[in-house]
Amino acid sequence: MTDMFSGCRVLLVSTNYAPEHAGIAPYATLTAEHLAASGADVDVLTGMPHYPGWRVHADYRGRWRMVESRGGVRVHRRRSFVPTRQTALLRAAYEAGFLAHGSIRPPAARPDLVLSQMPTLAGGVIGGRIARRHRVPHVVVVQDLMSAAAAQSGIRGGGRVASVVAGVESRILRTAALIGVVHESFVDRVTAMGVPGSRVRVVPNWSHVTPPTGDRRAVRARLGWRDEEFVLLHAGNMGLKQGLEILVETARIAHRDTPRLRIVLMGDGSQRRHLEHLAADLPNLHFLPPAAHADFPDVLAAADLLALTQRASVGDMSLPSKLTSYFASGRPTVASVASQGGTAQEVRRSGAGVLVRAEDPVALHGSVVELMRDPDRSAALGARGPAYVRERLSLEAGLGRITAVVSEALAHSAREPEARPASDAR
Description:
The structure is a single chain. The protein is α/β, with parallel strands linked by helices. The protein folds into two domains: 9-206 and 394-425, Rossmann fold; 216-392, Rossmann fold. It is 42% helix and 17% strand. The strands form two sheets. It has an eight-stranded mixed sheet with strand order 3-4-2-1-5-6-7-8, sandwiched between helices. β9, α8 and β10 (261-266) form a beta-alpha-beta unit. The radius of gyration is 21 Å and the shape is globular. The protein starts with 8 loop residues before the first strand and ends in an 11-residue tail after the last helix. 52% of the residues are buried. Mean pLDDT is 89; it is low at 418-426. This is Glycosyl transferase.
């Protein structure tokens, strides 16, 4: 590893970080560790680990604040309120808690650059404040668009607060030196907030899992999946925007019409108990806890088909992080999502899956049955995923894009040390 950032101090702000291994945490963690390995002195300001279960991990309960070292990075943790349910009011309390505690005694050393990971507004606000205080560039990587999420995700009360969220979000982005978005479908919405297109960079997420290596039949046997069963697996967060009720209804149809189809939901999230209640009478739908990080690729590869679902209202607010892992597994994806959103665009571009109308369990069941009956087509779709990862979603390519954005912001700051975006003066 080079020392291209030697002598540079970077502060990364992200509510999620390792040991969380789902959602944005792997990207925040690998980014910070990559910058540290490239010579930077890196601090991270984050919360106590709690995702995707929305419960603070056992090893961190009762802690108010702490500093730990992980992968050559100093990690400053702040406790905040973690809701077990998702409503607009509880989400606001979650954001407010991190904003309040994260703003008290942040890492004291002056950074040369602040890098904020958003989907949380609080992290963007804190990062912007620290950057302005020290007159250093603020780079924001947008994983989810929070104003769109409030309107589209189905969170109770979200529509009423969407305009307030949009105002805060646009302020963060307009005052940032550079903005990275994880998919090109975000660009128009970001520029509509008043951000010049010249400050927006597309920085796609990468596949952060290793290729599967386990014996597929042995993994299936360990999981209790019989050889004759066709397993449709959803792996990851069980939240509102996923609209996983469609898989419960698909299982209901399959129980009557397709007895060898087993549907498995693996993971955790705010909607898991609700889904377990809905599926209590379905012997062909099963729940698994999140797989250990090392086992995750082998579990994905042990399935026959991977499910990705979103509510019909979810368009350009996010790109599911699980998609990169799905592609790497070599299994095909069936995506029940809005046809014009970024998720659908990515599935089409990869050629590694099929698209189905969102929130249509009859159509989803029909597509699954078609792939069950055509194993050659299923295998061909699955084989395109790893090829797409190698071409576009490799770790080296993803971290290279982040490196380029950080380098650009630092170079611009060195040329114009007093320059700030015009909107910062408002």
